[in-house]
Amino acid sequence: AAASAIQRTGAIPVFVDIDPVTFNMDPQDLEYQIERIRQTTRFHPKAVIPADLFGLPADYGRILHLAARHGLHVVSDAAQSMGASFKGQPAGSFGTLAITSFFPAKPLGCYGDGGAIFTDDDRLAARLCRLRSHGRAAHSKYLHVQAGLNSRLDTLQAAILRCKLQAYAPAEQRALQQAARRYASGLKGVVQIPAVMPGQISAWAQYTILLYDANQRRQVQQALTRNGIPSMVYYPAGLHEQPLFRDLPRPPQGYPRSEWVSQRCLSLPMDPYIREAEIDLICRVITETILGKDSKREGEDAHGRKPGV
Ligand SMILES: Cc1ncc(COP(=O)(O)O)c(C=O)c1O
After folding, report:
1. In testing the pocket of ligand 1, which one of 80, 132, 235 has its CB within 8 Å of the most ligand atoms?
2. Which residues are near ligand 1 (CB < 6 Å)?
3. Residue 250, in any domain of the structure
4. Tell me, what CATH number does 46's domain have?
5. Digit-coded pLDDT (tens) for 205-244
6. What's the pLDDT at 298?
7. Residue 281 sits in which domain range?
């Protein structure tokens, strides 16, 4: 979504490799790509779009600093991170603009399609409001001043979101934090569990583990399927591998870390209503697949249960 939005403006997307631990944009590679474009092309970088993947805020400390140094706008893609924070500042409040999606699978989802753009720039906000409604002027219903879109948030979806924000969002966030802690204690030492850096709170849009290689991921996914447990590979390919972007110029080394992770990552069931016993079963299936049937982890009884569960 973010990369095709760039193309629609007539600009050229330049991808940045990820940090293999957080799966988010690597600020060091961002700096390299900015310098590479400056030194080897006639183009000028204009903006950077970090996504808060799987609910974890990008490294805004370093990204905002770099963007300021190079005169770039930051457009923060907070579609997966509503409810998260970075050093106490909520996701969706970084950069010139931030966007979110209210698609039902997102941390703040409605019951259909929807989205929002956040900014504290009044001029930009006024322009966005015009664009949202066929380029209509703010002061007159039948005066159109620019080419726009129909991009209004549907009233029914807005009513659902209002209700969720007021009544459910904080409780759901707490439940997700608890679920993540339980996954971590069940899977630590067996697979690479998601990293949350100091000062960050994740919204846990996904709970994504990293397996040893593609073969081990296949085995784990098959074992989960045999036990009736769904899992998903988010994402099976990097943006640079999509047919839409395959012909874009790229750095000589490509994007090795994105490819490495896309071959090993696996997202497990994660939602505020998942039960502890379900998480324990998922952890047991994964542990047994990787370490063998007789694997007994510290503190577990013969059934793989932890005391008190
Ligand atoms: C990080 C991110 N950005 C943008 C989008 C696009 O959202 P929508 O389909 O509501 O436009 C998604 C949805 O999958 C997403 O995960």
Report:
1. 80
2. 1-2, 51, 77, 79-80, 101, 103, 113, 115
3. yes
4. 3.40.640.10
5. 999 999 999 999 999 999 999 999 999 999 999 999 999 9
6. 52
7. 2-114+153-291
Please list the residues that pair with 136 across neighbouring strands. 144
How many structural domains is the chain composed of? Answer: 1
Is 306 inside a domain boundary? no
Pocket test for ligand 1, best of 52, 100, 101, 234 (most atoms within 8 A of CB): 101
Atom of ligand 1 nearest to the CA of 114: 10
How far is the centre of ligand 1, averaged over its atoms, from the C-alpha of 300 (Å)?
A: 40
Q: Which of 199, 186, 160 is nearest to 268 (CA)?
A: 186
C-alpha span between 67 and 61 (Å, rounded): 10
pTM for the full predicted model: 0.93
Helix spans in 133-168 (H): 155-163
Residue 300 has pLDDT above 70, yes or no: no
Contact 83, 107 (CB under 8 A): yes
